[in-house]
Each structure stands twice: as structure tokens, then as C-alpha cells.
Write a structure and sequence with these properties.
Elements: H1 5-29, H2 33-38, H3 42-62, H4 78-109
Helix pairs in contact: 1-3, 1-4, 3-4
């Protein structure tokens, strides 16, 4: 069986774009100045990550095309596919958040 790498790459890029928008949407909620100062606490960061996870599960539940192996011939049980897709989307959103935080630190340091 030949794995369609091009389709997987397209799916990953689609996930990255949706993950960026997901992170921006959740970050908009936490952009209030008072909450931004509190975001340095572990509890509030955990709440933000939980919101990202819930949003990722909701988005993947509503959009059928937002499945990681969508359009490929790789057979995965539907529940596993849904959970895997949601976790990948949430991780890409958090990866974007970490990247933006890294850029902010670099700008402040230099």
C-alpha cells in the first residue's frame, strides 16, 4: 500500500492554519490586560489549554474534512481518527502559541 504523502502534507498544512486561527481566537479571550498578567500562573495556563482542547474537539466534530487522514487510503477507526485529529489540532495551536511567546522573548532580549 502506497501512502499518499502529498495528501498528508496538505492535511497537516490545513491543520496548521486552523490551529493558528484557534489559538488566535482563544488568545483573544485572554488578551484582557488583567487576565494577561494572570496568565503566568500555571492554573490559568491550564484553563487556556483546556479551552484549546475543547475547541479542537468541537471543531473536529463539526468539520468532516478536518480529519488527519482525510482523503488518504489509510483506514483508521472513526473514533481514533476523531481523537487523533483533535489532539493534533490542539498541539499545533499550542505550538503556534509557544512560537509567538519565543518571538516575544527574543524581541525583549534584543
Amino acid at each position: 500500500m502506497q501512502i499518499p504523502v502529498g495528501q498528508l502534507w496538505d492535511n497537516l498544512m490545513f491543520f496548521l492554519i486552523v490551529g493558528i486561527f484557534l489559538e488566535l481566537a482563544v488568545a483573544a479571550i485572554f488578551s484582557v490586560r488583567i487576565i494577561d498578567d494572570l496568565l503566568n500562573t500555571k492554573m490559568l495556563r491550564s484553563i487556556k489549554n483546556a479551552l484549546v482542547m475543547l475547541a479542537a474537539f468541537g471543531i473536529c466534530a463539526k468539520i468532516d474534512a478536518l480529519r488527519f487522514f482525510y482523503g488518504t487510503k489509510i483506514a483508521v477507526p472513526e473514533l481514533v481518527h476523531y481523537i487523533l485529529s483533535s489532539l493534533v489540532l490542539a498541539r499545533l495551536a499550542n505550538l503556534f502559541h509557544d512560537f509567538v511567546g519565543y518571538l516575544k522573548e527574543r524581541v525583549k532580549a534584543g
